[in-house]
Amino acid sequence: xxxxxxxxxxxxxxxxxxxxxxxxxxxxxxxxxxxxxxxxxxxxxxxxxxxxxxxxxxxxxxxxxxxxxxxxxxxxxxxxxxxxxxxxxxxxxxxxxxxxxxxxxxxxxxxxxxxxxxxxxxxxxxxxxxxxxxxxxxxxxxxxxxxxxxxxxxxxxxxxxxxxxxxxxxxxxxxxxxxxxxxxxxxxxxxxxxxxxxxxxxxxxxxxxxxxxxxxxxxxxxxxxxxxxxxxxxxxxxxxxxxxxxxxxxxxxxxxxxxxxxxxxxxxxxxxxxxxxxxxxxxxxxxxxxxxxxxxxxxxxxxxxxxxxxxxxxxxxxxxxxxxxxxxxxxxxxxxxxxxxxxxxxxxxxxxxxxxxxxxxxxxxxxxxxxxxxxxxxxx
Length: 380
Hints:
The protein has 380 residues and is mostly helical. Helix content is 78%, strand content 0%.
């Protein structure tokens, strides 16, 4: 998994750069999605249906995971890069983001709930086949209506990977976005990772209540996505992202004083903030890309999303580091009964509230001075 994590991080900017430099009759992004979606589905299936002897499973799994990351990023990064190019105004972008993120949240719920039902009834191979087919069809169907800016409108300038990295990381607006996005994404990864421990060892609630708590976050996010779109069109992306961070911050406060009903109020606030962030993340990235394109007469969505993916991948390591330091320093010992010392309980409170609150405060301070122009209200 360490090898895979490094491989995944490096692939992001490399694939982004290759995508930006691609020139075909069918565009830069669409050919990758059209050609690689089916191989991606096949590789996903083979992850769950090994075709080697038992003694070779470790090497087989490593190879398949590396191949999966390669094809997955080649498809997803190009698919994501279409967004800033296809939708130019704030109205177009918020209208596109609302259904896009609603489908994403529903798919996430299905992705969490469906696998146990599938593999318990039909086994791992059938589960891999069914989910692989659904994923492949999803990517192929997304090509319907997709389009790119014609090459006559694109600069022929081609920068090396290192030159692009240097230019983009020297772009103050992009640096601010990267740091804010990293801190918020780290928070959104840390809270659900710690929540099962917090529920068992601090709140002492059942698995059913934990599932209901997690569902409350995602259902709230699903409900507020459309209202957030209307708010963003009226108030703009800069004010909206600040309120998103404030909502997430408020959602962490109830975890400081454990209460079974208080955490459900927290779930609603977190879901409200999550819904806004889902709409705003790509919108803010699109605005950074627009500013870069206006300055240099070249659209480089691929390398922007590639560097962003590289930075976000570091969050997995930081999250693991937080967990290790706190659990090790409090002498945590897992047990079925959910017994925990005061120091362990305090450790979980720190992990799920205090640390994320500090991360969000820094994110707010960073993005408060964001100076990238907001999306235009109409097409130029």
